[in-house]
Input
Amino acid sequence: MNRYEFEVLCFFEEHGEKTCTLQELSDTLRISKSAIDKAIERLISGALMTRNGMALKISEEGKMALEPYRAKRAIIVGAGMGTRMMPATADRPKPMVFVNGTRIIDTLIDALAAVGIKDIIVVGGYRFEVMEKELPEKYPFLRLLENKKYSAENNISSALLAKEYFRGGCYFCEADVLVRNPEIIRKYHYNTDILGSWSLETDDWCFTSDNGMLADYKKGGTHCYNYYGISYWSDKDSAELRKDWEELYETPDGKELFWEFPAFMIRKEKYKVEIRPCEKTDVMEIDNFSELVLLDNSYSGINQ
Output
C-alpha cells in the first residue's frame, strides 16, 4: 500500500468506525483532501475498509494488511552512570530515578506496552542490581541485559549486547527520556523514523531535514530538530545497522562511539531516516540535578 493508504488505515484502526469529513481527516493526517479521498476509495475497493452510510471502518483484511508494519519489540539502553544527576543517582541508575512518584523509564515502558509492545529488552550497567530487582516486579515481561563495560565504553557496547534482538521492526530508545505524551509511541510504522521537535536554536544533539529525512546530525544548531533518542527501525535498516555496529566497534576509536553515529554520521549515505515531528512537551531529557529539582521539588532539600 502507499503511504496515504497506510496513514488512513492506521487512523481507522486506532479510532474504529467513525464518521468524519475529508477536511477533518486532512487536518489530522496532514494529507490533502484529494489524496485522502483517493486512498479511501482504493482501500474500499480492495476490501481493506468498509463504508456504512457516512461512517468508515477498517476491515479485518485491513488490519491484516497493517501487520507487516507493526512495531514488534523495543530495545532500551541505559547503562551510563548519570553523574550530572548526582546525588539522585548515587544509589540507582538515572532511568530508575523517580520524578513525581514515577520512575523515568516507566514512562517509556508504559507507552510501549500501551500499543502492545511487550517484547522489550533493557540494557543496564551502572547499579544494574537496582534494575534487576525492581523492574521485574512491575514488568515481568522484560528481558534485562547487563553491560559490564559501561564505565569504559560508550553506548555502542550496549547496542551490540542487544543486537540479536534488533530485527524485524524494532524501537531503539534511550532509557533516560521522560515520556509525557505516550501517543508518541506508534503501533505501526511505514519507514525507519526518529522523533524530533523543531527548534530555532539548541546546544544539544540535533539534526536538520532533507525533504523530511534526517540530515546533518551534530551537537548544537539552528533551525533544526532536537534529538530525543526514540527511533524505530525497519527490518532492512536494523540488519544494516547491526553490521555497522560490529564493524565500526572494531576500529581504533570504535568503542567511543554512540550507538547512532554509524547511521546518522559515519555511514549515513546507507540510511533514510524519516523525521517524525513531536512537540517539546511530549518528551524530555532531564540533563542534571538542578533540572530534576525544578520538576520535582521533593529533591529540593538534598544537597548536591
Q: What stands out?
A: Residues 3-67 form a domain with the Arc Repressor Mutant, subunit A fold (CATH 1.10.10.10). The CA atoms of residues 82 and 89 lie 6 Å apart.
